[in-house]
Amino acid sequence: MADRFPPDRPNPPDLVPFAEARASVLERVTPLPVTEVGLGDALGTVLAADVAAAEDLPPFANSAMDGFAVRGADLAGAGEDTPVALEVTGEVFAGTGRLPTVEAGGAARIMTGGALPPGADTVVPVEQTTVDGDTVLVRLDPGPRRFVREAGEDVRQGTVVLERGRVLDPAAIGMLASVGRKVVPVHPRPRVTVVSTGDELVDPGDPLGPGQIRDSNSWLLAAQARLAGAEAFRCGRLRDDPAALRRGFALAAADGDFVLTSGGVSVGERDYTKQVLAELGDVRSFKVAMQPGMPQAFGLAAGTPLYGLPGNPVSCFVVFETLVRPALRRLAGHPDDRLDRPQVIARLGEPVRSPAGKVSFLRVRLAVGDEALVATLTGHQGSGVLSSCVAADGLAVVPAEHRELPESSPVQVLLLREDLAWVS
Ligand code: AMP
Ligand code: MG
Q1: Which of 31, 68, 87, 285 gives 333 a disulfide partner, CB atoms 3.0 to 4.6 angstroms apart?
Q2: N- to C-terminal Cα distance for the chain?
């Protein structure tokens, strides 16, 4: 059991508290300038201005049923045993533009979505009628405007249908189309450029030489960035060589709205990343009081925000979810209360330990228990053990002031999987 937890280390004095790190990153990121996009490209973007309906929805009164458009007064007293006969004088389909007029004693066959023809003021469903040649026997007094969808009953022209800050999800896109909007002002998806650093890295598919490992972080980060709503581009692996790093970071910064780099931000011999980032302008290295993921760097490289994440894949994963994702979402125009992953409260299914003075993000599985959600560790929590992320439904947060929490303690869990969002 004990080896499932990393050993406590003394609490270095230069650690930045997690909340402070988060605030100082967010402070330096502002939503991308507004652009107009077509509806086909708008899914997942954030609306930058209120949208008012330019037209009524529906645009005209129409039938909610297949049946007959009639004059209600003709059907007073109609019933199962007292049917009323009307003469069928016309037909209206969805899309019919030239409408027949319904005179007293007459009826027009009408299909769902057909415009209510002049003269008619109500609709009888076909199930309440029997047709005999040009005559229809009606067994229902429908009452006024029955089965009529009135013009503007869904949305009145001029009403705000979607507010600024709204994510354009499928319903929102359907609404925009319904009220005639083809192009909308949004914050564009951030273009995220991703680089990895390290002499030891090899792409998947290439032969693995002695001492080499796969570059997983650039794939991992690009995928996380995409799920966060960004467009992500892997811009290669950079060698642990100052000139290569300089060139690579400059290209990534020129190409993207946000650069992600991993590795080289701790204190190893060849950790040149830190040194090169410092030359780029305004990028600072720091240690955050969190586990995993302590060594990080952030700042503006030639004006583009750049985040240096730790090399260990789990650290990389957790730093992205907890610090980078909110920043990318701010860039994409999401309001402050929607920057973080949704959270739920769960009870720990086992005792956990956490290093002094650091917030821990534990990879947990969630299960529905008798009274609460139950969070259990996904296994070895080491910062290189990516399988602990693969199995995780969420990240359980152990605040910095706790060194251990007993079984059943309530904990906040950041939900990693969108199909779990129902739990909140
Ligand atoms: P570093 O911070 O560069 O010293 O890296 C810390 C650890 O993470 C080392 O074991 C690296 O080999 C590993 N690592 C760094 N970058 C990557 C990457 N892109 N993919 C997988 N592992 C990495
Ligand atoms: Mg390295």
Answers
A1: 31
A2: 31
Report the nearest-CA residue for atom 23 of ligand 1.
Answer: 311
Nearest partner of 232 among 185, 287, 191, 183, judged by Cα = 191
The pLDDT value given to residue 310:
95
Q: How far does residue 303's CA lie from ligand 2's centre (Å)?
A: 25
pLDDT of residue 413: 97
User: Rounded to the nearest whole angstrom, what is the distance from the C-alpha of residue 248 to the centroid of ligand 1?
Assistant: 17
Interval 222-240 mean pLDDT: 95
Residue showing tokens 């080499």: 212
* 353 phi, psi to nearest 5 deg: -120, 160
What whole-number distance in Å separates Cα of residue 98 and Cα of residue 3?
80
Nearest CA to ligand 1 atom 11: 311
Q: How far apart are CA 194 and CA 312, in angstroms?
A: 16
Amino acid 417 reads R
The alpha carbon of residue 204 and the mean position of all alpha carbons in its chain are separated, in whole angstroms, by: 29
Percentage of the chain beyond pLDDT 90 is 88
What the block records as the tokens of 59 is 């645009």
Mutate to test the pocket of ligand 1, among 240, 262, 287, 387 (most ligand atoms within 8 A of CB): 262
C-alpha 98: how far from chain center: 45
pLDDT per residue over 253-263, tens digit each?
999 999 999 99
Please determine, for residue 8, whether its predicted confidence score (pLDDT) is greater than 50.
Answer: no
Rounded to the nearest angstrom, the distance between the alpha carbon of 291 and the centre of ligand 2 is 19
Ligand 1 proximal residues by C-beta, below 6 Å = 196, 198, 200-201, 213, 215-218, 262-266, 268, 271, 310-313
